[in-house]
């Protein structure tokens, strides 16, 4: 039986924003941006992916994926494979018409970062005014009957604004908020790690407890998208928060793919482990020395930080 995978497909590598936390490894001020694959090439890679594996869901990401002008072709192709497709976008380039087209083409969920309830803090983090456009996109998605999730990247600069973001979610009628604790393993994130990394775990837990109370009152769900070490008592107290361990490991069922078929263990890692056009994903993951080396690193932490 074919192994089932969740795939993070990084197709467009350029971006119209300049987020200070961004993990894209070419966002470090000196690494040239790699060449992106054409849509035709990406479709060949996806065909091969579906031939070799069973895909449970696929997230289209980047860079900023909405810069791909014929993105709808890819979404329609994935629709024919009956796989849920998530669009991870900064939301700044979506107008009502494009939201409608993308939804009709088959996007099941739009994931859009909102980094504070006020535009000053958000825009400081994204480097370019973007808060208003991102909020507007969320309104369009809701109006068009689409599924939206808000992504909060928790850094030292905005952790205290998480409750505001939950308020925005409640006001917009969005019940799913993904809390990604900042991981400074690559790109601008690595460069700005000193000022963005949250070292005060007690403060983080305090914010999550307040957020949990708010979420309970407003029927919101908070998902921890990156691993956070919590005690069993804390896990029990946070009944509106779902969390997961680092998926990186020899038996991992998630991976990152680019438009040429290059496979990586995690979006934060720049190490290419193999190419699915000439190797099976199962074989690439089972034989990767990088993964084997960090297999015993605690899964309650991000293993990519250790892998580099
Ligand atoms: C690299 S972005 C690409 C998609 C799109 N441009 C966006 O910003 O949503 C993918 C997701 O990773 C999040 N992200 C980026 N850098 C991060 C970091 N250092 N730690 C945690 N999450 C991060 C972004 O907020 C976004 O939700
Ligand atoms: S996090 Fe997304 S929007 Fe921000 S710079 Fe990176 S790719 Fe662009």
Question: What do you see in this structure?
Answer:
The structure is a single chain. 38% of the residues lie in helices and 19% in strands. The relative contact order is 0.14. It has a single domain (4-307), classed as TIM Barrel, CATH 3.20.20.70. It is an alpha/beta fold. The protein is built from 13 helices and eleven strands. Helix 10 links the parallel strand 7 (221-224) and strand 8. Helix 1 runs parallel beside helix 2. S-adenosylmethionine binds next to strand 2 and strand 5.
Whole-number total of structural domains: 1
Largest sheet data = 11 strands, mixed
Mean pLDDT: 93
CATH superfamily: Aldolase class I
For the biggest β-sheet, the strand order reads 8-7-6-5-4-3-2-1-9-10-11
- Number of separate helices: 13
Features:
TIM Barrel; 38% helix; globular; binds iron/sulfur cluster; 308 residues; alpha/beta; single chain; 11-stranded mixed beta sheet; binds S-adenosylmethionine
Write the layout of secondary structure elements.
Elements (H helix, E strand, L loop, with lengths): L3 E9 L26 H14 L1 E9 L8 H10 L4 E4 L7 H10 L1 E7 L5 H8 L4 H13 L3 E8 L7 H11 L3 E6 L5 H5 L1 H4 L4 H18 L2 E4 L7 H6 L3 E2 L11 E5 L3 E3 L9 E2 L5 H7 L1 H6 L8 H5 L1
Parallel strand pairs: 1-2, 1-9, 2-3, 3-4, 4-5, 5-6, 6-7, 7-8
Antiparallel strand pairs: 9-10, 10-11
Helix pairs in contact: 1-2, 6-9
The structure holds S-adenosylmethionine and iron/sulfur cluster.
């Amino acid at each position: 039986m074919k192994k089932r995978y969740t795939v993070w497909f990084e197709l467009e590598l350029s971006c119209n924003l300049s987020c200070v936390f961004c993990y894209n490894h070419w966002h470090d001020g000196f690494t040239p941006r790699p060449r992106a694959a054409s849509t035709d090439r990406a479709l060949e890679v996806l065909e091969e992916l579906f031939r070799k594996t069973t895909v449970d869901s696929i997230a289209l990401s980047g860079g900023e994926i909405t810069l791909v002008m014929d993105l709808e072709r890819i979404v329609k192709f994935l629709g024919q494979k009956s796989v849920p497709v998530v669009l991870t976008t900064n939301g700044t380039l979506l107008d009502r018409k494009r939201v409608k087209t993308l939804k009709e083409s088959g996007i099941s969920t739009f994931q859009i970062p909102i980094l504070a309830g006020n535009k000053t803090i958000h825009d400081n983090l994204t480097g370019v005014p973007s808060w208003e456009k991102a909020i507007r996109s969320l309104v369009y998605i809701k109006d068009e009957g689409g599924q939206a999730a808000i992504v909060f990247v928790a850094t030292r600069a905005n952790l205290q604004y998480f409750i505001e973001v939950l308020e925005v979610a409640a006001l917009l009628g969005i019940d799913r908020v993904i809390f990604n604790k900042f991981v400074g393993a690559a790109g601008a994130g690595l460069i700005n790690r000193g000022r963005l990394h949250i070292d005060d775990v007690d403060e983080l837990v305090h914010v999550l407890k307040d957020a949990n109370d708010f979420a309970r009152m407003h029927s919101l769900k908070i998902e921890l998208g990156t691993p956070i070490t919590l005690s069993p008592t804390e896990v029990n107290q946070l009944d509106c928060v779902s969390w997961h361990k680092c998926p990186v490991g020899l038996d991992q069922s998630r991976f990152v793919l680019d438009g040429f078929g290059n496979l990586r263990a995690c979006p934060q890692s720049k190490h290419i482990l193999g190419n699915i056009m000439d190797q099976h994903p199962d074989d690439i993951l089972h034989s990767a020395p990088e993964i084997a080396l960090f297999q015993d690193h605690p899964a309650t932490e991000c293993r990519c930080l250790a892998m580099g």
